[in-house]
User: Fold this.
Amino acid sequence: MADYAQMPENWQEIPPGKLAECLNRRSEGYLPGLLGVTLVAASKECVRACLSVAKHHLAPNNYLHAASIVALADSTCGYATIINLPEGAEGFTTIELKTNFLGTARKGIISCEATPAHIGRRTQVWDARIWDDKSGKTIALFRCTQMILPQR
Assistant:
């Protein structure tokens, strides 16, 4: 069986059932991995991730820090962008993001689902919803624009 610890040049080479696992391995040592962001499903149409809330995700007031929510959403959308990069792209960078915070969590698991609003050759726009797994309550709505970077 192939080792998908390193992302191949062409993500389509990865079997669909192994894509989330490969992206999780790619996160090791980087911010998403250090924060505990875990992809649970990945396809071109939808990427889902979760985060088990721990003390280091909280602000000093013992509520979920806004940056933890943004990191989960931006990471989820970032991986969605990676698997939707057009031919000839080297990568991408976030050029705009916006978050509407609607609630919070102090413990448990929060989840995120990213879906495309626009997939173009030069930009992609992603929408994400973040919710508390136990209550199902929406914690935040997120939108980002990614600029596609061409190969040099």
Observations:
- DSSP finds three helices and six strands in the chain.
- The mean pLDDT is 92.
